[in-house]
Amino acid sequence: MNLPNKLTVLRLIMTPFFLAALLIPFPHHYLVALILFGAASLTDYIDGNMARKCGLVTDFGKFLDPLADKMLTTAAFLGFIQLDIGVGITWITFIVLIREFLITSLRLVSAGKGNVIAANIWGKAKTVSQMLAIIVAIGGRYIIDLTQIHLGIADANVWNAISLITNILLWISAILTVISGVIYVIQNKDFIDPKK
Question: pTM for the complete prediction?
Answer without folding.
Answer: 0.87
